[in-house]
Structure formats: structure tokens, C-alpha cells
Design goal:
single chain, alpha+beta, 5 domains, 5-stranded antiparallel sheet, 3-stranded antiparallel sheet, 13 helices, 38 strands
């Protein structure tokens, strides 16, 4: 084994070119020729001269050693077997003869030249045969270029075959013009700022070296150009497929791995003496492939609260805690139909984060930065919880009624002064019948809520089945007396008539009190005594006309001619239209009060009441 003198790749001993960088290698040394024993060239034997008549004296002839002549090996490299050397036996001396003429060396020279040519032809032929039959082993992974672009997690990749996109001709090797020999991939990319990781504004041709094979180096200039052309043509027919476990372009990120398969035209590769290895290999994306992409949650830091009472909760939200980048990217809006409804525990409110940017690819670009946004994160549904329970309130608690007039023509209005202020301000009441009412009549009051929400906001709710209230006009309501009511019997007449005060006020040098002309000057009011009382009832035109008669005895002191003496007089006090007022007192504030004086004539004072009782349709009751 040996190593490439240029790139250091391990090579077979008989390889003339590096299969990695193409550099020419030193030819293996030819085996040294074994020494060949010189072959003795045969020397012609001496020829005996014709016998002469006279004998010649015997002389010693010098010994001759034949010269060794080398034999040229044939072109095949094999040498002929060496011939043995013969030594002639001594012979009888002969007469000296002139030396024979030497043979010419032209033939030897011609033979040497022919031998060299044969050897050179064999070497050249071997080289050509080796050159045309040697298989070129090529690493398929070095024929493929993977170009990642776009943001991390949403990246794409161009997986391109060098020979499919390369220049049509091999590039000339020149250290000055092309310091990186090899096929260069010419990709034309119109840079899109939303997708590419290349600097903004780069729209020219992008040149990247992708393969060291058939690079146009000097080493490859010496190989058969037809074979190089065939090899390049075969590589142009390669097809590349990519498997990414279903992830798909537009979703690649750092650490993702794709499997690349390279397949060629077997016939074309065989004809070009090209063998592909590593035809299936993996490529794992690194940070250099994609632009940084920050994953962002639009609602991280978004605050949602609900205050108030169950059934009337108010939504409060704030994005003050949201990341500044998210604030710049998104606009937050609630579902307003959901937002403004009164809220109960368990209700849901939906918020949406929208943006002017294009999210169709799952990311946004702003101010030169990429942001990964999950579609599911653009909508946030919040559930209402923690609201206090409402207190059920009686809509008619504290209700009262005001009266005007008196039964049986009583009028009624609602008095809310003692009701909770919340009810006063949020509930209206309607009476189905509010006038011409009598004792025992039933009225129905209906409540109407201004706003359930306003009521709920204060922490209250109500039973919708209890929206009405029935009220019976009580006996204590103002009414004209129709009979001898107990209150008439128990009421102190002094409370009704106040004669003590009236008489006391009248005393003081006068002779007249309530129509009484005293025999002298009245000097003192002594006492009053209430006697019998009667009550008369006479219905008239759907109303009641009644009279209250009270007999009274009053004692006064008189100054008559300088003499002081006491005297008792009788009075009848009369009320017309006596009734029970809204304070629960017997009153004749709308009636007529009169006092009739009957001095010393008690029976005469009562006779008038008897006359009234005798009238038609008049009922007389004796109260006491």
C-alpha cells in the first residue's frame, strides 16, 4: 500500500492516480534485469594451407581468447538462456596468415533501438489499458449539497446534486483565478427577506464549491478526456431523494435529520467506470443552516381576573405583564358578547391575539427577527371562577302603604322609605287597584327590576317566582266608621272633644261659653263629666255619613252680683263624619264639630239624638 503524495489518501500500490484528489502518482519501479552471462561468440577455426614441397620449420602459434558479446533481451522482458563457452584444443602450428577483417556493429545498434521501442510501447500500452479500465470510486455524499434556509423550526432545505446544477464544462485550474479547484454549484436564489437566512439585498449568483471530483486539476488533465466526460455525464443522470420521517419542508429545525439517497443510471456508471459508494447517508441540520427563531406565547403574562358576585361578575384584564416583543406583534381583543354579559362561575371568555404579519407559515418576522407562533396559542379561553355567591333578597321587604281618603273610598300608594336603598333604587312597584278601596279589600303589587345586573353587582339576587305581593286593607286603615267599632267605645271622649281645654281657655271674665250665656261672669271652670254616647250611621251614595253624639256635664263658678256660686250645665258634643285616621286615631278632621248647651236640661239635651235615630236608614249604636 502507498499514500497519495498530495492529499495523503491510502492507495493501492499499482494506482497511478489518487481516487480522492486526482493527483498523479509515481509509477511503480520496474523489476531489475537479472545479470546475463555473456555468450561467447564462435571464432572460426584456422584453415590449413595447401602443403608445400619443402617442409617448413615448426613454430609456436599465440593462444586466442574469444570476446564476450551481450544479447539484447526481447521486449517481453524475458532473456534468452546463455550459450556455453568453448575453448579450442591446441593444434599443430601453421604458417602465419593475415588477420581477418572485423564485422560491422550497425546491426547491434539497430537491435538495441528496436528493443527499446518494444519496451516503451509495452509500457505505454499498459498505461492506456490501465487508464481506460480503472474504476473511479466516488463518495455520493460529496456530490450533494444541502442548503438550509428560513427560521429554525420552520426551515426548508435545498438538496441539490452537484453535477445537475454545475457548469457544463470542467473549470480550468489556475491558482490565481481558482484557488479552490472543483465543481462549483451555481444557484440562483432571489432572496426573500421572509424566508432566507442570507443578508438582505443579496440577489446575485451564489457560488459554492460542492464536489472535489472531476475538478479540472492538472492530475485529471492527464487522464482520458473521453472517460472523464463519460463519468461526468453519468453523474449528471444521478437522482436524489430525501426522506424526513414525514416532517416536511418548512418544518425543519436544528437537530433534525434527513436521509438522502443517491441513485444513478447503472449502465451509464458502468460504461464510465464509476462506482458510487455511500449512496444513502444522513444529514443533521445545525445552527448554521437556519436563522434563530424565538418561540413566543402571545398570552404569557396576560392577566385575567373576575370580580364581584356569581351571576354578576365583572371581567378585568391586562396585558401589562406581556413581553414587549409580544406587545409589538399582537393586538388583543376579547369576544365582546361574552365580555359584557354578567358573569357566573364556570362561564368562559375568549380572547384573541391578532397580528398584521403573515402567520401562514407558523412564524412572524419583525425588525429582522423571527418568532415562532403556534396557531393554538393565538386564542386563549379563560374560565370564570372565585365569584362570591349572591344573597337572595325579598323584593317586598320593608314595603308600606300610604293612605289618602278613607274607606270605603280609600286610596293607596306605596311607601318605600323604610325599604333597603338597593330596592328603592332598582325596583319599581305597581298596584293593580289603588283607589275606592274598603277595609278587607285585597290589592296586588308587582315588582319590576330595573337591571338584574345592577342588583347582582351589589351581591343580591331574587326569586323570579316571587315577583308579586298581595296586601289586604287592614281595619286600621283610615275608614269611616260603619258600626260601633271597639275603638269608638274605648276612646276617651276627652281625647276626641277636649272640652277641658276648651272650657279652661274660655274662662276669664266672659259670660259666654259654647253658646252658654252665664248669669254672671265666669270665674272658674271646675270639671267636666262625660255621660252617654251614641253613634249614628246612615249610608249615602256609596259612602258613609255618621255622627257621634256625646252628652257632657260641665261645672263652672260664676260671680253673680259679687257673690260666687257653682252651677252645672249640660252639653251635647256632635261630630259629623267621624273616622279613623291613618295614625289610628278617631278623628273628624274633615267633619263638623258642634256643642249644644242645655242649661239644667239633661233630657232635652238627649232628645235630639233620639230624633236623629228615628230617621229612615239610620242605625243607632249606644257606645256607653
Amino acid at each position: 500500500m502507498k499514500f497519495c503524495n498530495q492529499c495523503g489518501a491510502q492507495l493501492e500500490d499499482d494506482m497511478l492516480f489518487c481516487n480522492m484528489c486526482g493527483a498523479k502518482q509515481e509509477a511503480p519501479a520496474a523489476p531489475a534485469a537479472e545479470p546475463v552471462a555473456p555468450v561467447a561468440e564462435p571464432v572460426a577455426e584456422p584453415v590449413a594451407p595447401a602443403p608445400e614441397a619443402a617442409p617448413v620449420p615448426e613454430t609456436a602459434a599465440p593462444e586466442v581468447i574469444p570476446e564476450a558479446v551481450p544479447v539484447i533481451a526481447p521486449a517481453s522482458g524475458y532473456m534468452q538462456e546463455a550459450a556455453p563457452v568453448y575453448t579450442p584444443e591446441p593444434v599443430a602450428p601453421v604458417p602465419a596468415q593475415p588477420a581477418p577483417k572485423k564485422k560491422s556493429k550497425l546491426g547491434l545498434i539497430i537491435g538495441l533501438i528496436v528493443g527499446v521501442l518494444v519496451i516503451a510501447g509495452g509500457v505505454i500500452g499498459g498505461i492506456l489499458i490501465y487508464k481506460n479500465s480503472k474504476k473511479e470510486t466516488i463518495d455520493a455524499s460529496q456530490l450533494v449539497k444541502v442548503i438550509g434556509y428560513g427560521p429554525n423550526g420552520h426551515g426548508s432545505a435545498a438538496v441539490v446534486l452537484a453535477y445537475k446544477n454545475a457548469m457544463q464544462e470542467l473549470m480550468e485550474y489556475d491558482d490565481d483565478e481558482n484557488p479552490y479547484p472543483g465543481l462549483w454549484l451555481y444557484l440562483y436564489e432571489m432572496v426573500d427577506d421572509d424566508e432566507e437566512k442570507y443578508p438582505s439585498g443579496v440577489t446575485s449568483w451564489i457560488e459554492e464549491q460542492v464536489s472535489p471530483y472531476f475538478s479540472g486539476t492538472k492530475a485529471y488533465k492527464t487522464i482520458n478526456e473521453d472517460q472523464a466526460s463519460e463519468a461526468k455525464g453519468a453523474l449528471k443522470k444521478l437522482k436524489v431523494t430525501v426522506e424526513d420521517e414525514g416532517k416536511g419542508a418548512g418544518n425543519y429545525g436544528v437537530g433534525d435529520t434527513i436521509t438522502i439517497k443517491v441513485k444513478g443510471d447503472e449502465d451509464a456508471l458502468k460504461k464510465a467506470h464509476v462506482v458510487l459508494k455511500n449512496t444513502t447517508f444522513e444529514y443533521t441540520f445545525t445552527e448554521a443552516d437556519f436563522a434563530e427563531c424565538k418561540e413566543i406565547d402571545p398570552f404569557k403574562g396576560f392577566e385575567f381576573t373576575c370580580e364581584g358576585y356569581n351571576g354578576s361578575g365583572k371581567i378585568e384584564y391586562s396585558y401589562d405583564g406581556v413581553d414587549d416583543e409580544a406587545k409589538n406583534l399582537f393586538i388583543y381583543s376579547p369576544n365582546y358578547d361574552e365580555l359584557y354579559e354578567a358573569k357566573s362561575n364556570g362561564d368562559k371568555v375568549t380572547f384573541t391575539a391578532s397580528t398584521w404579519g403573515d402567520l401562514s407559515k407558523g412564524y412572524l418576522k419583525s425588525n429582522g427577527k423571527y418568532y415562532s407562533v403556534k396557531e393554538s396559542s393565538l386564542t386563549k379561553v379563560f374560565e370564570v371562577s372565585g365569584l362570591e355567591e349572591l344573597t337572595e333578597i325579598d323584593l317586598f321587604e320593608g314595603i308600606a302603604f300610604k293612605y289618602s281618603g278613607r274607606a270605603p273610598k280609600l286610596s293607596v300608594t306605596i311607601d318605600k322609605s323604610e325599604m333597603d336603598e338597593l330596592l328603592q333604587n332598582n325596583v319599581t312597584y305597581r298596584i293593580d287597584k289603588s283607589y275606592n278601596l274598603n277595609i278587607g279589600d285585597t290589592i296586588t303589587v308587582t315588582a319590576t327590576i330595573y337591571s338584574d345586573r345592577r342588583l347582582n353587582e351589589e351581591g343580591y339576587t331574587y326569586d323570579p317566582e316571587k315577583m308579586t305581593y298581595e296586601f289586604v286593607i287592614p281595619e286600621t286603615a283610615p275608614h269611616v266608621f260603619e258600626k260601633d267599632d271597639e275603638i269608638l267605645k274605648t276612646t276617651d271622649p276627652e281625647v276626641l272633644f277636649g272640652l277641658k281645654d276648651k272650657f279652661t281657655a274660655a274662662v276669664g271674665g266672659t259670660q259666654f261659653i259654647a253658646g252658654l250665656q252665664a248669669p254672671g261672669t265666669i270665674t272658674e271652670f271646675v270639671s267636666v263629666k262625660y255621660d252617654k254616647a251614641y253613634f249614628f250611621v246612615q249610608p249615602q251614595n256609596n259612602s258613609i255619613n255618621n255622627e257621634y253624639w256625646q252628652l257632657a256635664e260641665a261645672t263652672f263658678k260664676f260671680n253673680i252680683g259679687g257673690v260666687e256660686q257653682e252651677q252645672t250645665v249640660y252639653f251635647t258634643c256632635q261630630f259629623d263624619g267621624i273616622f279613623l285616621d291613618d295614625s289610628g286615631n278617631v278623628s273628624n278632621s274633615n267633619g263638623q264639630f258642634t256643642i249644644n248647651y242645655y242649661a239644667g236640661e239633661k233630657d232635652k239635651a238627649m232628645s235630639q239624638s233620639d230624633a236623629i235615630a228615628a230617621l229612615e236608614n239610620v242605625t243607632k249604636y249606644e257606645l256607653r
